[in-house]
Structure formats: structure tokens, C-alpha cells
Design brief:
mainly alpha, 4 helices
Length: about 90
């Protein structure tokens, strides 16, 4: 759940920015997809996942997430974040 939380906006933003730019350059789709994948993995690995892991440490670390309430709270927070992102991208990209 936490990976998708960071991956979805990364892929959307790259698609809207870099993807459009690569298409206008006439780059082949398979090469543009490769470049986008390299960029998204880099952003996830070095920027977003460390941040997500810190923010959700209360839920992701077994030593901290001892109760069912913590597990449910973490899942609900992530689901709400997904809904916010989906709504935001839906409103801005339609």
C-alpha cells in the first residue's frame, strides 16, 4: 500500500511532464517508457520511499504496530491519501 501511495503520483507527474516531452521529441514508445521507469524508480528509491517509510513507521515497523487499531489506522490513512490523489489528478487532468 505504501509503495502505491508513492508510485501513483510519481508515475502521473512523470507521464504529464516527461512523457509529453518525450512524445513531442518523437521518441519511440518503448524507449520513452524505459526512461520514465528509470526516473520513477530513482525518485521512489532516493526521495519518496524514505519519506513514506518515516511518516508511516508507526504502521510499517512491527515493533511499533502492535495493535489491530494501529494496523487499521495505517491502512485507512493510506486509503484516504489514495482517494485524495485520485481526486486531485482526476480534477486536474480531465
Amino acid at each position: 500500500m505504501s509503495v502505491v501511495l508513492a508510485l501513483y503520483p510519481t508515475v502521473m507527474i512523470l507521464n504529464l511532464t516527461v512523457g509529453g516531452w518525450l512524445s513531442r521529441l518523437g521518441m519511440a514508445g518503448y524507449l520513452a517508457l524505459f526512461i520514465s521507469n528509470v526516473l520513477s524508480v530513482s525518485v521512489l528509491t532516493w526521495l519518496l520511499m524514505p519519506l513514506v517509510n518515516r511518516v508511516f513507521a508507526f504502521w510499517l515497523l512491527p515493533s511499533r504496530a502492535r495493535s489491530v487499531g494501529v494496523h487499521v489506522a495505517g491502512a485507512v490513512i493510506v486509503a484516504v491519501c489514495w482517494a485524495v490523489l485520485i481526486t486531485a489528478f482526476g480534477l486536474t487532468t480531465s
